[in-house]
Amino acid sequence: MPPTPAALRQQFLAATHTLRNERRDFPEWRRGRTHYLLWAIDVDTPEVRARVQAAQQALDGLLLSRYQRQPHITLAVCGFAAQSSAPAPDEIDAQHIAAQLAALRARNLDVFRIEIGALESFAAAPFLTVHGAAQQFASLRHCLHTDTHDAQHPQGAYVPHVTVGLYADAWPCAQVAERFALLADAPPLALTVRRLHLLGYEAAEIGGALFTLAEYDLTSGQMHWRARRADRPWLVQP
Description:
Helix content is 24%, strand content 26%. By secondary structure, the chain is of the alpha+beta class. It has a 6-stranded mixed sheet. Residues 148-155 have low confidence and may be disordered.
């Protein structure tokens, strides 16, 4: 089970200071590669977007500028789009995506409901909490982490969340947390999840906008590609 909001708050306060993010290219991470892919649930609705904007306003002056990611719940980070037949460990290719799709279809998943809640935070980034569907999240992550035995998040227990932004400096956590009260009474936003999205972003742009490569329909088990190789020449598509 994911940590409770109270446990998340304790973990955040225990960090004492937020982590400073910086806007630069990180060539040592990219190594010339251009696009990074992830599986996520698209929650970019007017209501969720308004709540993200309210959270950003509550944290005004603390966040890195020009954060443009649309509201989403990351299910699995895939890696850089492979551009050869021998992908590196931090790359994903057509064979890997095909294995993920096979695992999703074998699990015979269905639509499910979630709720978007109030404001909490990791040391590096504030987020809106996500409640409900713990078993569905576990099943999805098991399917999408076909190369691991336990699908554990590399940075610890998986916490479904909607990122609000990135901290611009090392701020005292206790002072930052005081601002969370501005959204403490926000009512839960109920959403029905019908599709999963394979998303990507420009790796050189920190906090840049996401684009959709494909949608997986939970009811039909069909993958609907929005981008073909002619549109994304770096994409090796199954």
